[in-house]
Structures are given as structure tokens and as C-alpha cells.
Amino acid sequence: MSPSYKNYSTWSASVRWFHWINVLSVMALIFVGLVMLYKKELGISSLEAKIGLKELHVIIGYIFATNLVIRLLFAFIGPASARFRAFIPGKGFMQSLQSYRASLKAGNPQQFIGHNPLGKLAVTALFTLLIVLAMSGLIRAGTDIYFPPFGSIVASYIAEEGADPDSLMPYQKAGVNPEKMASLKAFKSPIGKIHLYTAYLLMLLIIVHITAVVRAEVKEGDRLISSMFSGKKILTEKPQDE
Ligand code: HEM
User: Fold this and answer.
1) Per-residue pLDDT averaged across 159-175, rounded?
2) Residue 211 pLDDT > 80, yes or no?
3) Which residues sit opposite 233 in a β-bridge?
4) Is position 92 within any domain?
5) Which residues contact residue 206 at a Cβ distance below 8 angstroms, ignoring those fewer than 6 apart?
6) How many domains does one find in the chain?
7) Residues enclosing ligand 1, CB less than 6 A?
């Protein structure tokens, strides 16, 4: 008997807009981040270029962070597919994970309108990393180049008595109190490490995420990739989360 197809509405417009703006901004941030990391090897040595790269990274970072904040707002007040309960593992999760894995092994994967249980784990991990990156990045934007939202607090803290905090320039000693700069360094260095290692973890998880999505598209046939554009899934079986 040939399977019967049924059309389901899945991701809301807010989820789809977030997803694609996030993909573009994260790719751009990774690209500029890696250029910053390997600047010596790429022959970038001037201070202006170093600061210019950071400014570019931070400006893209504002787009990324704003998109993320809006998405998290929708997780509280948005449509069902955008809410936290659509992806954070809740009651009965372990059971649904086992049952989904058993269906994969049996070669007859269960179908879902929203995320399958493995997808829920991946999305929760991705959001956690994105939040850590946004917070550590915004702090480094303040401590490195005195950019908002924390730049003016940082500049006021490290400015020499009588110096105008607004006149401080990134990587210039003029007007800076050396002791306060040393204590700022002790604070910003671990934040930089957290930012960098979280970025590496994110790169790894992006590879896992793309591999899993392509595998689901090919093996489960629920049009997962096109559903992130159209908001519609075409399923051949009764979904587990209907
Ligand atoms: C997905 C999001 C992000 C990724 C993957 C990412 C990636 C990176 C990478 C790979 C570096 C180089 C690390 C280094 O030079 O030690 C970096 C540095 C930096 N990032 Fe991000 N970043 C992200 C978000 C942000 C955001 C939202 C901001 C702020 C608005 C930001 C601000 C910075 C700053 C100021 C630096 C320079 C830190 C330093 O020189 O140690 N980043 N980022």
C-alpha cells in the first residue's frame, strides 16, 4: 500500500526568521572570529586592522544578540512552536527518546510535527552555547574596545583620575590607570577563554546539527529542511506529537 501524505503546520514565522538570521550572523561571526584568531598567519599586523576586525565582529554580534533576545522573548510569549516547551526536554522525555531510538534502529523512524527527541537535545545545547557566546561577547566588547552595553562602565573604571573616560582609545595607555587596567585584564582574560572555547564547541555542534538534519531529511522523509523555509511538514504517518 502506498503511504498517504498529510500536510502539517510546524515552525512559526518567528522561528523561521530567527533561524535564518541566526545562521547568517553566526557564519559571519565565525568567519571574522577565525580571521582575528589567525591574523598573524594572514599577515594582518597593524593595530588599526586589529581593532577594525573587532569592531566588525562586534557590530555583527549586535545583530546576532538582538535576534537571539527576540527569539528568547518569543519562547515566553510566542506561538506554541516557539515556546520553551517545544524544545526543552520535559516530563517523559527519556521514554520518548528511547522509543524514538528504537524506531530508528528498526528502520521505521517515528515522525514528529515539531522536534524529534534528539532534535530537542541539540536545540537546547545550541541555545545554551549561543547565550554564553552573546553574554561573553558583549562583555569582551566592553572590556576590549569600550563598546556598548558595558564600554562606558569599563572606561569609567579604568580612567585615571581627572581623565575623561570618553577620550580613552582601545589599546592606548593614555588616560588609563595601570593598576585598574591590570585588574581588568584578570577579569577579561577568562571571559575571552570562555568565548573562544564556546565558539569551538558551537562549531562542532553545528557540524553535528547539519549532519543530523540531512540524515533525517534523507532517511525519515519528513521534509525537515524545506519546512524551515515553508513552515510546513509533509508526513506519511501519524505524528507522535499531534
Ligand atoms: C555565535 C556567536 C559568536 C561566535 C561563534 C564568536 C566567535 C569568536 C571567535 C572565534 C573569536 C576569536 C577569539 C580570540 O581572538 O581569542 C571571537 C572574539 C571576540 N568576540 Fe566573538 N563570537 C560570537 C559572538 C560575539 C558577540 C555577540 C560579541 C559582542 C557583541 C562578540 C565579541 C567578541 C570580541 C570583542 C572578541 C575579541 C576578544 C579577544 O580578542 O579576545 N562575539 N569571537
Assistant:
1) 97
2) yes
3) 8
4) no
5) 26
6) 1
7) 26, 29-30, 33-34, 36-37, 54, 57-58, 61-62, 64-65, 133-134, 137-138, 140-141, 144, 192, 195-196, 199, 202
